[in-house]
Amino acid sequence: MSYVSDSEKNALAAKLRLLTPRLTTYESQELLKKFNFNLEKASFHLLSKKSASFDPLVPEINAVFNKYKDQEDPNDLGIEGTIAFVQDLGVDLEDPVTLALAYKLYSPRLGSFPRSLFILGWVELGASNISAMRAKVKELNVSLNHDPAFFKSVYQFTFSYNLTDGARVLPIDTAVEIWTLLLKDKFALFDKWITFTTDVYGKSVTRDTWNMILEFSIYAASDPNLEQYDEEGAWPSVIDEFVEYVKDL
After folding, report:
1. If DSSP codes are grouped into helix, strand and coil, which group holds residue 220?
2. Where is the DCUN1 domain (predicted)?
3. What is the structure's pLDDT at 231?
4. Which CATH class is domain 1-53?
5. Which of 87, 114, 180, 237 is least surrounded by Cβ atoms within 10 Å, i.e. has the fewest?
6. How confident is the model at residue 166, as a pLDDT?
7. What's residue 53's pLDDT?
């Protein structure tokens, strides 16, 4: 288990208490400790307790989940259930807001929405039926396009969300697909970056590089010709190589 700070423990406990407000912070933390502060396992255990007094939204959200649950694993939506659910929300599967939704519902990986986290996420968002969920998705879309802090959180989330089991880097083709979804209209040098990464660089993408590309795209908005680019700055080497590539064009 990786280190969990006191502030992170408090945040996790607060999320768990959304499911059953009668749970004290101490009780929440003790339950989380039992499951090594794994929110999915702790919330699943809590929801399995029939004697608990849950938030009124919980049974309604659970009913929505049951409509789309995977036939082989009834505690996950699975790929087919996810597709059907997203389509019923009126969202195109290629719409960037699907990534924002996955982030808010604590999806651990592409095509997976565990029951307990699905319920927790929608309780937190305050929606318990498809109509209300559609409205919340529209709000997420507004936030994604107008709230830089939220966009950054979603962008950083997509790295681990798209990793395959055991992997620590993203294949370049996967990275390009996500960059196209999220950065195409936000990165002044987007086309050049994609050409460089696919035709010249060609390597897998680390988490550090992934995060810094967003920062670089923000920088490039004010210096699209890279005239003020600081080669001694704290940019990863791939960005230094890209800047040299652009200047040589």
Report:
1. helix
2. 56-247
3. 87
4. mainly alpha
5. 237
6. 87
7. 87
Report how far apart the first and last C-alpha atoms of the chain are (Å, whole number): 47
Going by pLDDT thresholds of 50, 70 and 90, the confidence category of residue 165 is confident
Residues 31, 47: Cα–Cα separation, whole Å: 12
- Same fold: 55-147 with 163-248: yes
Q: What is the CATH number of domain 163-248?
A: 1.10.238.200
Q: State the average pLDDT over residues 168-181.
A: 96
Euclidean distance between CA atoms 27 and 129, whole angstroms: 30
Backbone angles phi, psi at 76, to 5 degrees: -145, 150
Can you give the pLDDT at residue 19? 95
Q: Cα(10)–Cα(96) distance, rounded to whole angstroms?
A: 30
91-108 tens-digit pLDDT: 999 999 999 999 999 999
Backbone Cα Rg of the chain: 20
